[in-house]
Amino acid sequence: MGFSLSWVAVAPSVEKALVERFGLTERDETAELAEFDLNGARLPGWYLLVADHSDALVDEQLLKDLSKHGRVIAAMVEEHVMCSSAEEWSNGERVWGLSHLSDAGILHLGVEGALPEAYHAIHQKQFDEQEKAGGKKADVDHIIDIPLDLAAAITGYRHDMEGPTFNEMEAAHELAAAEQRPIDGVSSNRGLDKRSSTSY
Question: Residue 171 — φ and ψ, nearest 5°?
Fold first, then answer.
C-alpha cells in the first residue's frame, strides 16, 4: 500500500516544547518499526516523533515554533502520490528544504536554502539509479528518496529501515492536518513556488 507519514527529530533542547505542544505521554507498547498512529523513539542526539497516515509534523507553524528552542529536522513521504520532503529549522527559520513531487515530473526537486554537504553524493547516487532504470521514462521513482536519504544522513532515521525501538505515544491535543507542506507547495502554493523550483 505504500508509506504515508511525517516525522520530526528534535534536539534535546526542543524535546520539552514538543511534548508540551501535543501533550504527549508514553504508553507501554513498543515496536521495531513506527507502526502505531503516533510513535516516539530516541536517537543519538535526537528525540523522534513519527505520525503514521498524517502530515501534521511538517506544518510550517509547528516547525517554526519548535525551532525557537533548538535544531529541528522534519520529513514526510506520501508514496501513493510519490512525493517527499525534508527540511531543517533553527531559530524560527527554515535553514534549508528539499522536496520531490512526481506530479511536477519524475526528476523534479524543489530546493530552498543551502543544502547540507551530504546532499551532493545522495543526489548523484539516486539520479544515477534513475538513469539506469530509464530516466524520465522509467516506471520507478528513485528521486523520491533524495529528501528522505538526506534527512537520514543527519538524524540516522529512515522510515523503511530498521532503527530504534518505538514506544506508542498518546497525544492529549489532536494532531491537526498540516495547513501546508513546506518546500515547493506539496499541499499548497505557499513556501517555495514553482518559479523557484529546480528540476535537475
Answer: -110, 130
Q: How many CB atoms lie within 10 A of CB 155?
A: 21
Distance of CA 43 to the CA centre of its chain: 16
Residues contacting 9, CB < 8 A, separation 6+:
43, 46, 47, 48, 49, 72, 73, 74, 151, 155, 157
For the record, the C-alpha cell of 77 comes out as 513521504
How many CB atoms within 10 Å of residue 111? 19
pLDDT averaged per 10 residues in sequence order, the chain, 200 residues: 92 98 97 95 98 95 97 96 96 96 92 95 97 94 97 97 95 85 41 34
Q: How far apart are CA 77 and CA 65, in angstroms?
A: 22
Residue 18 and residue 24 in contact, taking contact as beta carbons nearer than 8 Å: yes
